[in-house]
Request: fold
Amino acid sequence: MSRMFKRLSSTVTIKATPSKAHHHVPLPSSSFPTGYVLTGIHAGVKKNHSVLDLGLIISTSQQPTSAAACFTRNAFKAAPVLVSDQILQQTGGRARAIVVNSGCANAVTGRQGLDDAWTMVKETDALLRPLPAKNETLVMSTGVIGQTLPITKIVAGIRSQATPEGTLGSTFEAWERAAKAFMTTDTFPKLRSRVFTIGGVEYRMAGMDKGAGMIHPNMGPAGTTFGASKGQLHATLLGCILTDAAVSPRSLQSALTYAVDRSFNSISVDGDMSTNDTIVVLANGAAAPSGAKEIDEETDRDGYEVFKKELTEFAADLAKLVVRDGEGATKFVTVNVKGAPTYKDAHSIASRISTSALVKTALYGEDANWGRILAATGSVPLRPATPTSTPPTIDPTKVSVTFVPSDGTAPLPVLVNGEPEIVDEVRAKEILSLEDFGVDVDLGMSGDGEATYWTCDFSYEYVRINGDYRS
Amino acid sequence: MSRMFKRLSSTVTIKATPSKAHHHVPLPSSSFPTGYVLTGIHAGVKKNHSVLDLGLIISTSQQPTSAAACFTRNAFKAAPVLVSDQILQQTGGRARAIVVNSGCANAVTGRQGLDDAWTMVKETDALLRPLPAKNETLVMSTGVIGQTLPITKIVAGIRSQATPEGTLGSTFEAWERAAKAFMTTDTFPKLRSRVFTIGGVEYRMAGMDKGAGMIHPNMGPAGTTFGASKGQLHATLLGCILTDAAVSPRSLQSALTYAVDRSFNSISVDGDMSTNDTIVVLANGAAAPSGAKEIDEETDRDGYEVFKKELTEFAADLAKLVVRDGEGATKFVTVNVKGAPTYKDAHSIASRISTSALVKTALYGEDANWGRILAATGSVPLRPATPTSTPPTIDPTKVSVTFVPSDGTAPLPVLVNGEPEIVDEVRAKEILSLEDFGVDVDLGMSGDGEATYWTCDFSYEYVRINGDYRS
Reply:
């Protein structure tokens, strides 16, 4: 009985979550894609007048603008998800604008929610030139919920952009304002840009995203089942990527689907999937040579592959910002699994390691507890090669685990071919006390399945934020 | 930028985890099955001499003793799991003894670990009368690891039971000592018994288990692939159930497999599956009428169904004790999902709700945040009826969520057919401030799939225990 009461109360000082503000940096205007105007304004969804809550992104290109999106696979899709999905299907992947609000997720708001989302689309469509023949605005919402949108204020905010008071622009400051309009519990606006070349022509892409909690996206392409309901939820992953390349709608979608799997669908803060997760990409062709065809996977395979690679890397950059800003996060951990039979197997195992409460609390405690990593790895059933075949099994004597520091110093193997190394605990602590480090798991199986996941630790601060979110 | 630094440090006083000691109660000796002797001793695996670390359970019945087990499905199975599995296959489901040690899990200990587990089997076999022709002892280990067993001390401990100093007995005190020998981070020994009747004959079953962290078992019957490796892990679910009914080996296994799915495979503390999870059941026939046949699902369907029901209920009782003693747990929550197409769908959804970090932190915060429950529900893909058919989808307008107090007062519907109720927050707080309550989710789909899961909340205390487990 001596053990009883061992696990009782004590006072704990929560470690200061390090400031993440330095991850927001100015970007040169020349790195932003041409043919877009943006803004972020205070429309009145949020009470605080100094906080931006409505963002607009509009393509002004003379070329057709392609659009693609990946939406949450959650059964309880929010109204803006359902509406944007439907628009992409109606237009066959053409859209010229994005409207986003923060402060209210318009999720689980029934018929009224759908009406409000459509209103946002139609009001934003009215800002487009030439005026669209069909709906050409995609809509996104995020925030603390259980309520319908203050749609009158939002409509007024959108209409204000057609007046001389309008602030749509293409400077860094305009992009920054749009990025700020996405924010909810985020501690910094998440904005990045990059320049790339396809066939000797220079293009640009820039994008923004938001998210800190309820982050474990699983998004797929448009064409999901419709249905809506009402209720209080919160938080979400939202993002958009804008490029001035010209890409056919179907190839934009397939490149995005590939990129999202390897970026936004490969991050976890808390293992919880939201009802609003949405990633949109627009390609307006504004930088394409006159008369050039749209990049397409069938007619321009090389160009498509370059574009897909750029999009995937860029999406990963944006996704990682969400993990860095994860609720209560003090660590940024890259989990790499290789030597698996397939990419999907590697991805499932990396996901399991990245969501394990025992792994994540050990990361917080800066404890090189690879046993927990192994237990998480072994808990994932591998997929059979065909529906009727026996699934492959992990051979424990071939598995290796290594901690990889981010500072360029030597990696630390802790398990090699199933044999535990005699670990230098001082060195282990040194690596785990870094803000950034990696965990590599090599299953040593035949097959080249490899996947990377990004996760953060699990801290007192996470419990504090989410233990009394509504109070 | 006003939001920046919002999520910074503060001092938090960890709520006192309520004492769980009252869940350990004396049981009448008449409720224990006949034909078993047990003990728990200090063999020296653990340093503290007042702590028991070796348990022995031996059937003294003149009838054949049937044995069945479910083992972890983790790819990294510990040595005792591999050895017990092999014995059950060799004997065709006959075994008369169980030996268990705590303090060292003998997991990931390579060839030496397997040798040590076999030594424990053979030494315990030597205590059986008549002496067995084949191995008839099942072995289990649990504890903080990375090391091989102190096998000399364990052998001496087992052999001491053949001497006049031996403490094997059948009193409550003997059962209690055996239960204590299972304990690691548990705060109380977990021991229960029950009396039941089949065909007018009275039988008894009693059992014990242990576990507090790394609890999210997924166990299946014997016959898994072999393989072993080395490494530091910890914690586990172990349990055994002893009955004096006579049950054929195959029916004991099928009843146990059914029972484990609805008990031990339906609990979660932290969503992490261990490498050592093992549940064993022995049926020694000591209370069966002379000359009676063993209960079997083909030759005595009625008797089998009664036995299966009793075993399932009893296994659930034992499983629930583990959740009550979950690391850092302050709540005991019963999650019931119904109106699903199949039991498996209901079970997957109940499991997802029970492991959601956002749900569990809200439970800790006594926050009736049903939105998080809904998001978790919607994140689970339902199974297609056949491999080639389209999976069914949840209709959000048919889903209802209810909080159910344990004190017999009225349940509180918070979502009815997809429509949020206007929730009396005072009443909600009243229910969630109870130690025990339930969450009912009705999907409203055609099909009678229903499953129950037991979980606990996610507290600062959990982070404290697991953030510096090894230090």
